[in-house]
Amino acid sequence: MTPDAFSGAAEAMQDQLVAWRRDFHAHPELGLNCHRTAETVARHLKKLGMTVETGLAETGVAALLQGAHDGPVVALRVDMDALPVHEQTHLPFASSVAGVMHACGHDGHTAIGLGAASLISAVRQDLAGSVQFIFQPGEESPGGAALMIEQGVLAHPAVDAIVGLHIHPALDTGRIGVCSGTVTAGCSDLDIAISGVGGHAARPHECRDPIAAAGHFIVAVQNLVSRFTDPLDPVVLTISEIKSGSGYNVIPAQARLKGTLRYVSAAGRTGALESLRRIATGIETAFRVRIAVEIRTEEPPMCVADDLARTAFQTAAAMRGAAKVVRITKPSMGAEDFARFADKVPAAYFRLGCHDPSRGYIHGLHTPQFDFDESILAVGAAYSARLICNLLTKCQRQEKAK
User: Fold this and answer.
1) Of 293, 236, 234, which Cα lies nearest the Cα of 261?
2) Residue 32 main-chain phi, psi, to 5 deg
3) What is the mean pLDDT of residues 320-340?
């Protein structure tokens, strides 16, 4: 089998791809605790004759497929974790875990990764180079990519290029969106504590009300984007949680807020945080409270290499036809910790469309109704495998040209 035959081979293994996806979907796992998923992944990769390492970032799996000839190393990263969402799809293979669901397509990503591994394994005798398959937990939280990188997943062996993917409802089913430039935003998750003086609700003048201060703070930061940032340098600030109080007649001593800041440039991040702290200082003075802003997690923007994006587009057009390939140059304000990998080695990234109103596939990521047409699993596996083979060739040519 040659890379040109990957599409047919992937379609022939469609039943297996669907079985994997449905098994992962029915048994979702959160964060770094992807034990069952990792066991299934490691078992199959070992069956393919790969060198498999487990336990990275607690449940991550790295598997090396060595080609018959020396050459560069290209990696494929797929994420495995689910979300704390209560499923409402009513699928026969719906989540068996209350309050946990694969609402972001990572069940599909994992099946696609296993399919790509199977396809490339079948042509290993023709490969000049090696492929590192990275199955990562904790993409949604708490950031499994950074942990796997710290544990050497890009260094042993040294990876020359890496591929990432995401199923995406903004594209029609079966279309491939090839990303270039800045793909996703950087993300700073914020914890905000507003401390005042509590007391009786009938005597607010004796208190320093953190709830009143929180209300003004929330309203004030809405001006951060519209009045204090460059409209050509996208920034989003959302306050997503507020907790305070314990009764009808009690003014509490503290209010706690959570939020997220999204940005595509270092200047956008710096300016937004400066404005946020300036607003906090003003609220502190006006309401005689204390406001502490803590950055809990940080993910950089994801940027992909232009030359790899060109190869990704050419590969997609050759496999699917140009009409089914979309160039994506506008960044998403969503975050993706694949950015950690793209920050270390040249990266390519693609999105696999799953939007089809005629069949009811209309729901967005991170919603309890999210589902997708499983025919895209074969497309994703074939394209991932073909792109990896083309990148191995590209990297080898670049090495010879040095």
Assistant:
1) 236
2) -90, 5
3) 95
